Amino acid sequence: MKQIVVLQRGWVVVGQVTRTENEVGITDASVIRRWGTKAGLGELASNGPTPSTVLDPSPTIRVHPLAVVLSIDCVEEKWTHG
Predict the structure, then answer these.
(1) In this structure, are residues 32 and 4 in contact, taking their beta carbons and an 8 Å threshold?
(2) Residue 49: domain span
(3) Which pLDDT does position 81 carry in this prediction?
(4) CA separation for the pair 1, 15 (Å, rounded)
(5) Cα–Cα distance between 62 and 82 in angstroms, integer?
(6) Phi and psi dihedrals of 47, rounded to 5?
(7) Which of 55, 46, 49 minimizes the C-alpha distance to 74?
(8) CATH number, domain containing residue 41
């Protein structure tokens, strides 16, 4: 499931999220450097990236589950490329 994941220390990432007891894995990942929204992360999750959104592609991100502050489900079809 594609989600925006807010991590400790202010990192905000988006990608395909899987969870186990010991790890949260985020593949097809990007760090969201600039949201580019007027209504925050909910707008980004619902409507996909705006022309002002800046995404920095990243290899797979793996974090401990306790590092996750919150997760927001994305409308996947709004995040398709090309």
Answers:
(1) yes
(2) 2-79
(3) 63
(4) 8
(5) 27
(6) -110, -5
(7) 46
(8) 2.30.30.100
**Percent residues over pLDDT 70 in the chain:** 98
Question: Which residues lie across from 68 on neighbouring strands?
Answer: 7
How is residue 60 written in tokens? 């797979």
What is the distance, to the nearest Å, from the Cα of residue 33 to the centroid of all Cα atoms in its chain? 11
- The pair of structure tokens assigned to 32 is 């969201």
Q: 55: closest CA among 18, 14, 11, 10?
A: 14
Closest by Cα among 37, 57, 39, 49 to 75: 49
For residue 54 the two structure tokens come to 């800046």
pLDDT tens readout for residues 20-53: 999 999 999 999 999 999 999 999 999 999 999 9
Residue 82 is predicted with a pLDDT of 45
Residues in the chain: 82
Total domains, the chain: 1
